Amino acid sequence: MALGIYISVPFCRTKCSYCNFASDVFSRAVFERYVERVCADIENAERIAREAGEHMERAVDSIYLGGGTPTVLEATQLERIFATVRSEFDVLRDAEITVECAPGTLTPAMLDCLLRCGVNRVSLGVQSFVDQEAAAVGRLHKRTTVLEDVARLRAAGITNINIDLIAGLPHQTADGWEFSLAEAIATGAPHVSVYMLEVDEDSRLGRELMAGGTRYHAHFTPDDDATADFYLVAGERLEAAGIARYEISNFARPGFDSRHNLKYWKRQPYMGFGVDAHSMLACSDRGAEDGMVAVRFATVDSLERYISGEPLPRTVVNPKMALEEAFFLGLRLTRGVNLQEIAAEFGEEAVKTFRDAIAESLNDELLQRDGDVLRLSPRGRLLSNEVFQRFLSAPAAAQ
Ligand code: SF4
Questions:
Q1: Strand 373-376 relative to strand 278-282, pairing
Q2: What's the gap in Å between 166 CA and the centre of ligand 1?
Q3: How far apart (Å, rounded) are the C-alpha atoms in residues 33 and 21?
Q4: What radius of gyration do the chain's Cα atoms show?
Q5: Going by CA atoms, what residue is nearest to atom 6 of ligand 1?
Q6: Cβ of 385: how many Cβ atoms within 10 Å?
Q7: Between β-strands 337-338 and 373-376, what pairing exists: parallel, antiparallel or unpaired?
Q8: Which residues pair with residue 160 across a beta bridge?
Q9: What is the pLDDT of residues 31-45, one digit of tens each?
C-alpha cells in the first residue's frame, strides 16, 4: 500500500493564543538548520524504517506539509524539501499534495513555488471569518484576506481547498458562528474542518481559562454548552450545503475527502519527518516479532532536541492494540466500524470482548448500530473521547 508522508514545519509568524501545537516563532537562521535536518531524515528514511523494525514502501500517494505554517519558509527551502522527497520516494502522478497556509502568507512568489512543487491542495487556517474573533486569538488575517487567497488559489488552478474553523473562540456568538459557516460555504471550498476549542495546559488561552483569568480574552470565551451547540450547527449547515461529514471534525463535497488524513484513521502506513512527527508502518509479516502488527514512532516535540538528532522511541503495536485502534480510529469515521470486517481481521472472539463496551455505549446513546455497522451518534461525536476510552479499557482477547 502506498505511503503517506507528513512533514512538520513548526514555524509561525506569531503564536496564536489557543495553539497547543509544537510550533513557535523562530528566527530565519533556524529555518535553514531545520530544513537541513528534515532533508537528511528524508534521505535516511529507509534506514529509519529498518531500525524501527519495518519495511517502508517507496510509492507515495499523499504528502502533507503542516505544523506550523510551512509557507513562512523561503521558497527555496520548500523546493528543497519537495525535491528531496521526490528523489527518495516514488511520488505517484495523482498524489494528493497538501500544504497548510496561514491566510496572508500566499505571496505571488510563494504561490508560484507551491505550483512548482506540485502542490494540488491547500489548507487555510481561517478559524473565523469574523475579524474581531480572529484578531482576539492573534491571527493576522482578516476575512477579506481569506477571500483574496481563495480567489488567487483558484486562479492558479488549486481548487482543492480546505478551510479550518474553530468553534468556541473568544467573542464568538451564535450569529458570528453562523456568519463564519455561511462564508466558508460561500467560498465554494470543497473541504471544511471544524474543531472545538481545546482547553488544556499546552496553550496560553487554555491555561488562562483553566485559571479563570481574563488574559487573551478568556472571559469572552463561550461556555462548553454554547461551543457544543456551535459544533452541532456546523454539521447541520455544512451537510445542508452538500459538504458531508466523513469524520468527527471533517466535511467534504463528494470526492474531496482528505486522502492523507484518512490514512491515520484507516491505519494505513505513513512516515512523518520533522518536529513532533508521527509514523506508522504496518508489519508486512504479521507475527514476525512477538505478535507485532505494526510499529509506531514519533520524533520529539522540541526543536533543539530534534535538530540535535535525538533517537526515536518506537512502540510495537501488538494485535490487542491494533484491535483497539481499529475501534477508536474507525469510529471517528462517519462510515463507522463494521463488526464483520473486524472479526475477519482479528477473529470472532475479539469482537465478543467488546460486547459490554458496545452494549453500554448503545444504551447511553453514544453509539448507533445499523446491522453490523457501529457509528457514533450525534451525542457520541461530542463525547467521542469518552466512547474511545471504553474501547481502550475493554479486556481484549486478541494477543
Ligand atoms: S498558525 Fe497554526 S500552528 Fe501557528 S500558532 Fe497559529 S494555530 Fe498554531
A1: unpaired
A2: 12
A3: 20
A4: 21
A5: 16
A6: 8
A7: antiparallel
A8: 121
A9: 999 999 999 999 999
Give me the sign of the Cα torsion angle 171, 177, 182, 186.
Answer: positive
Per the DSSP assignment, residues forming a β-bridge with 314 are 297
- Cβ atoms of residues 70 and 38 within 8 Å: no
Q: Does ligand 1 lie within 6 Å of residue 125's CB atom?
A: yes
Q: Which long-range contacts (CB under 8 A, 24 or more apart) does 263-267 make?
A: 263/4, 263/62, 264/329, 265/329, 265/330, 265/332, 265/333, 266/329, 266/330, 266/333, 267/294, 267/322, 267/325, 267/326, 267/329
203 within ligand 1 shell (Cβ under 6 A):
no
Give burial (CB, 10 Å; 0-12/13-18/19+) of 155.
exposed
Task: Report the nearest-CA residue for atom 2 of ligand 1.
Answer: 68
pTM assigned to the model: 0.94
Residues in a beta bridge with 196: 167
Q: What domains can be seen in the chain, in order of their start residue?
A: 3-262 (3.20.20.70), 319-399 (1.10.10.920)
- With a cut of 70, list the residues of the chain below it in pLDDT: 284-291, 393-399
| Of the candidates 314, 327, 313, the residue with the CA atom closest to the CA atom of residue 398 | 327
Beta carbons of 71 and 110 less than 8 angstroms apart: yes
What pLDDT shows up at residue 394?
Answer: 64
